[in-house]
Amino acid sequence: MIKAILYGCNGKMGQEITKICAQDSGIEIVAGIDVFGGKAQNPYPVFTDIAECTYQADVIIDFSNAGAVDALLCYSMEKKLPVVLCTTGLSESQLEMVQKAAQQAAILKSANMSLGINLLMDLLKKAATVLAPAGFDIEIVEKHHNQKLDAPSGTALALADCMNGELKMGYTYQYDRSQVRKKREKEEIGICSVRGGNIVGEHDVIFAGMDEVVTVRHTAYSRAVFAKGAVEAAKFLAGKKAGLYDMADVIAAAK
Prior knowledge:
By secondary structure, this protein is α/β, with parallel strands linked by helices. The protein is built from seven helices and twelve strands.
């Protein structure tokens, strides 16, 4: 059985992961790390500082915040311990630190931990290479709850990037058309953000051509989809050699 340390265990995502691991015979959380200590009713010991954790593990699952990532990466490098890094909004210096840590341990970083989203990226790469040269315009509409701070979502940008990469990075991103009165550029990807209610996450990628439209949609109905993906990533990453991985590697291993 794979043993995991859960970094940010008291948060909403941490609690989702706790529930999933409790029902998964292939992985066990042996310790949690959270600034609020044992505030939640967790079935494992909780430390406020990862440096104080004495439990042996095969992998760390992180759903904390950007301010806590530095200590996590230092611990990972010291212990040569793999990390599934789910925290977003990292600074440039932190991203450089991720690259450095990947030289010492296996680090899996992804803009979205959903298995469905990452499978969708594979499909979009093929769609873009067929439809964009045929004159189809590409637009992305992403919807999230009214408490989300960033826009567009990291997932929307990742979807755009995966298609743009297949198109030799020839497309620019257009986030707001209200300031300029002009026709749409051919080689651009429009990205629109909607914020409202308690929408967990919805992404539509629209390929609009002459007389036909192809729309690919992913809808997350609960946070559990991201937690499940993180757990699958942890099971994949345990025992891997040092290097930088992403969810595409998890998908590839499952084929």
